[in-house]
């Protein structure tokens, strides 16, 4: 039986990294995610699995260390929170351009600027629509529990290597700071040099006589070559949209009203659905688990039979725009959110739901 | 069964670790838990609080505004959370931490003079375990065997000698909690 | 002796290093980069470490260094090469890892990365090309541009009040406990190039000893940016650059 441990979401990221054969972590302290590196340093994985853990001089440097490690075909990751992730956006763009696999954990806090250290989902657009300059996409997965934090590290690397693309685990202060029960699966070893050569033949592992030299770069300077590369990237994104959409539904079978929410907001909406159901109102919830790829088709399918929908987010309605695009006008789509590090309660969501739907 | 508990006091009173030991004990009893702290600069010397939810079903929202139980260890926390206890719920307070007594009549109110009992045990650090004992006496939601297991999981192995001391502190709290308002 | 005799293997006295690729270099005639590339290729070949070497190229004229030396390469964002090298070396400790950076890349936008890589004592080699100007973007002022020197962003000469002073980053890095070998060389004459090659070889050898970071500055010319002929540029470098940036070893912890 899997071992059950009480831990914070941030700790789950660190423990999962060690137990899932991650090769390297490079980070810089920032609230509310500093427990990730603190836990790694306390666990000293370099003495057991050989995992490298390094505190860099900045987020700029940590993401570029990730670039260097990923170039060698290693499973490398970093974590930060909103202001730190802004600094990483240069590196994220270069990694998208060089098609490098990696996992980046963003435990979002209130913004803009230095903002607050409390939970927020204000960086949805920043991460889901790109993350850095250029016409590119991160694969974005949104955990809603400490168990998700644990499980998404391994899933993230699987996606990252499958598509040679950065993967962002887009969490928030609630998911990072909250302790929950986590079931730990058996340990996975780190990849051997042999496995890396097989899985990542493109990596800079040292040029042997029998192959051409490998170059990791995002530069081309020739517009036609660059355009061809952009097309190749977008074909890859189309494939990801085809294969990797993940979402969960709660009480949608007979629902007349649908909430959409991701991350910690989806937990609060679940409780709101329970309250509404107890009053005889047939509400349900769709939680996108992948934010890119976004569950457009599933939302469109459900929207066809809804009286209305409402997107509930810790921002001013960034995902709501994607929901409206998916709904294609089939039903009204409302929005309710809190900002700045404040969090709505289930009762508050219920009240706003009733206001929007004119239910007394 | 679902119990929503807020534990609040000054940073340094062991509020967060009390919540953690309670949550771990519940896991040892195969229950679902969430432990959601207030975090950040307000923790340093200011007020600290943690919301622990224990349930036999999967827990939806970890954020709640009404609690089955409020454990308050200073005046600010009493002011903030007395009215957040659900009617029929429970309030536990430490009389030496407050200047104004709680006034609700529709909830059960208990007091535990934890500083005195911790001093009797010769270690002020077990203050929070005395308080935990008081709570578990009134609401025995976790069996004492599982509390012991929760302690073992929460306390690093090198401090294994502290488990006995913590257990006696819990017992002390159980023996000495006083009810000051029955519903 | 006719041309065919000259080309016979037994008569060859000099050839292109085996590890230089056949790609035509994009560098301007007279530029120092080509010479430094050649020296690095020779060192890697002579040490027999082609399959163990990973190069990290910068942003700047030498962004395309990866086209010219037949080893695995990573191309870094501007200034970030030491961060890439840090992770590469730590994750692959049996490899030889070097960065190749210009003065804009290393001494301006990448100061944090180089200082902290040095401070941590990363076991890497850094080749630092200092020609006092941004070459690739068209001759703008660099952090190492001399006072009075004209560039496209200091058209009346660098003025300390307006533009600040030139930075002697190599001397600064020598102060850091994590550095093992710090030297300043040039490649404008055959003897100088031979000395530079020895320095590069020593840096690579040191990087496998686990004693800290090795740093080779090459004071170089940019005759296009300086708007001088290659010969004039060499002379100008000797007369002006060497005064501020004198060649020679600055630190060697094994001596």
Write the layout of secondary structure elements.
The complex is a heterotrimer of chains A (360), B (183) and C (255).
Chain A (H helix, E strand, L loop, with lengths): L2 E6 H11 L4 E4 L7 H9 L8 E4 L3 H13 L4 E5 L1 H17 L3 E7 L15 H5 L10 E3 L4 H18 L2 E7 H5 L1 E6 L8 H7 L15 E2 L6 H21 L3 E4 L6 E4 L3 H15 L4 E6 L1 E3 L3 H8 L4 E6 L4 H10 L5 E5 L8 H12 L3
Parallel strand pairs in A: 2-3, 2-4, 4-5, 5-7, 6-7, 11-12, 11-14, 14-15
Antiparallel strand pairs in A: 1-8, 6-13, 10-12
Chain B lengths: L1 E9 L4 H14 L3 E6 L9 E9 L11 E6 L2 H7 L3 E9 L14 E4 L2 H7 L6 H12 L5 H11 L7 H15 L1 E4 L2
Parallel strand pairs in B: 1-4, 4-5, 5-6
Antiparallel strand pairs in B: 1-3, 2-3, 6-7
Chain C lengths: L2 H4 L26 H15 L5 E5 L14 E4 L5 H11 L4 E7 H7 L1 H10 L4 E6 L2 E2 L5 E2 L18 H4 L5 H6 L4 E8 L3 H18 L5 E7 L3 H4 L3 H15 L3 E5 L3
Helix pairs in contact in C: 2-8, 4-5
Can you give me a brief rundown of this structure?
Chain A has 360 residues and is an alpha/beta fold. Helices cover 42% and strands 20% of the residues of chain A.
| Level-1 CATH class name of the largest domain in chain A | Alpha Beta
Instruction: Please state the CA-atom Rg of chain C, rounded to the nearest Å.
Output: 18 Å
Main sheet overview of chain A: 7 strands, mixed
Span between termini of chain C = 48 Å
CATH superfamily of chain C: Thiamin diphosphate (ThDP)-binding fold, Pyr/PP domains
Q: Give the strand order of the largest sheet of chain C, numbering strands 1, 2, ... along the chain.
A: 2-1-3-4-8-7-9
User: How many structural domains of chain C?
Assistant: 1
Report mean pLDDT of chain C, rounded to a whole number: 96
What is the third-level CATH name, the topology of the largest domain in chain A? Rossmann fold
Query: N-to-C SSE series of chain A?
Result: EHEHEHEHEHEHEHEHEHEEHEEHEHEH
């Amino acid at each position: 039986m899997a071992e059950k441990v009480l831990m914070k979401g941030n700790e789950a990221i660190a423990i999962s990294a060690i137990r899932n054969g991650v090769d390297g972590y490079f980070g810089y302290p920032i609230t509310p995610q500093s427990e990730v590196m603190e836990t790694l340093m306390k666990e000293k994985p370099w003495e057991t699995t050989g995992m490298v853990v390094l505190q860099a001089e900045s987020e700029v440097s940590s993401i570029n260390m990730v670039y260097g490690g990923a170039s060698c075909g290693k499973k490398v990751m970093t974590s930060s929170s909103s202001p730190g992730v802004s600094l990483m956006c240069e590196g994220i763009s270069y990694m998208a351009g060089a098609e490098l696999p990696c996992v980046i954990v963003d435990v979002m806090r209130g913004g803009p600027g230095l903002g607050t250290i409390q939970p927020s989902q204000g960086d949805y657009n920043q991460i889901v629509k790109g993350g850095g300059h250029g016409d590119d996409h991160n694969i974005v997965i949104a955990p809603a529990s400490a168990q998700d934090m644990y499980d998404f590290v391994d899933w993230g690397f699987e996606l990252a290597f499958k598509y040679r693309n950065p993967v962002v685990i887009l969490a928030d202060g609630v998911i990072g700071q909250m302790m929950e029960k986590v079931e730990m699966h058996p340990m996975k070893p780190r990849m051997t040099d042999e496995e890396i050569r097989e899985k990542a033949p493109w990596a800079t592992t040292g040029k042997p006589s029998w192959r051409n030299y490998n170059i990791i770069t995002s530069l081309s300077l020739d517009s036609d070559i660059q355009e061809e590369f952009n097309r190749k990237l977008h074909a890859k994104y189309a494939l990801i949209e085809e294969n990797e959409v993940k979402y969960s539904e709660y009480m949608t079978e007979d629902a007349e009203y649908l909430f959409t929410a991701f991350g910690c907001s989806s937990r609060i909406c679940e409780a709101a659905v329970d309250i509404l159901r107890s009053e005889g109102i047939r509400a349900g919830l769709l939680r996108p688990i992948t934010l890119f790829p976004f569950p457009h088709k599933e939302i469109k399918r459900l929207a066809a039979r809804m009286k209305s929908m409402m997107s509930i987010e810790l921002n001013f309605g960034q995902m709501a725009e994607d929901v409206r695009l998916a709904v294609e006008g089939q039903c009204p789509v409302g929005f309710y959110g809190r900002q700045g590090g404040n969090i709505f309660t289930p009762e508050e969501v219920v009240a706003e739901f009733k206001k929007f739907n004119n239910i007394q | 069964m679902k119990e929503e508990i807020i534990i609040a006091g000054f940073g340094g009173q062991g509020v967060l670790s009390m919540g953690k030991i309670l949550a771990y004990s519940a896991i040892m009893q195969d229950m679902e838990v969430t432990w959601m702290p207030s975090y950040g600069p307000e923790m340093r010397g200011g007020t600290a609080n943690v919301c622990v939810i224990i349930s036999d079903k999967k827990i939806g929202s970890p954020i709640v505004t009404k609690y089955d139980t409020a454990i308050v260890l200073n005046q600010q926390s009493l002011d903030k959370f007395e009215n957040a206890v659900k009617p029929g719920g429970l309030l536990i307070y430490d009389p030496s931490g407050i200047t104004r007594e709680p006034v609700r009549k529709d909830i059960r109110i208990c007091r535990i003079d934890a500083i005195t009992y911790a001093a009797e045990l010769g270690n002020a650090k077990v203050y929070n375990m005395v308080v935990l004992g008081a709570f578990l006496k009134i609401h025995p939601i976790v069996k004492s065997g599982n509390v012991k297991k929760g302690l073992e999981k929460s306390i690093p192995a090198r401090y294994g000698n502290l488990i006995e001391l913590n257990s006696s502190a819990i017992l002390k709290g159980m023996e000495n909690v006083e009810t000051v308002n029955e519903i | 002796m006719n041309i065919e005799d000259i080309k016979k293997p037994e008569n060859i006295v000099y050839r292109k290093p085996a590890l230089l690729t056949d790609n035509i270099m994009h560098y301007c005639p007279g530029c120092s980069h080509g010479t430094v590339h050649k020296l690095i290729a020779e060192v890697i070949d002579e040490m027999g470490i082609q399959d163990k070497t990973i190069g990290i190229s910068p942003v700047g004229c030498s962004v395309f260094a990866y086209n010219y030396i037949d080893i695995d390469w990573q191309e870094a964002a501007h200034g970030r090469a030491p961060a890439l090298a840090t992770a590469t070396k730590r994750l692959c400790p049996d490899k030889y890892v070097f960065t190749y950076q210009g003065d804009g890349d290393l001494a301006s936008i990448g100061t944090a990365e180089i200082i902290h890589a040095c401070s941590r004592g990363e076991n890497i080699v850094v080749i630092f090309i200092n020609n006092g100007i941004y070459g690739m973007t068209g001759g703008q002022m660099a952090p190492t541009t001399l006072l009075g020197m004209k560039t496209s962003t200091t058209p009346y000469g660098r003025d300390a009040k307006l533009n600040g002073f030139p930075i002697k980053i190599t001397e600064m890095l020598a102060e850091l406990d994590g550095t093992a070998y710090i030297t300043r060389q040039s490649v404008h004459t055959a003897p100088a190039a031979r000395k530079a090659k020895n320095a590069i070889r020593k840096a690579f050898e040191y990087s496998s000893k686990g004693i800290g970071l090795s740093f080779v500055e090459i004071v170089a010319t940019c005759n296009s940016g300086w708007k001088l002929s290659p010969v004039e540029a060499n002379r100008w470098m000797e007369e002006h650059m060497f005064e501020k940036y004198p060649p020679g070893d600055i630190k060697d912890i094994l001596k």
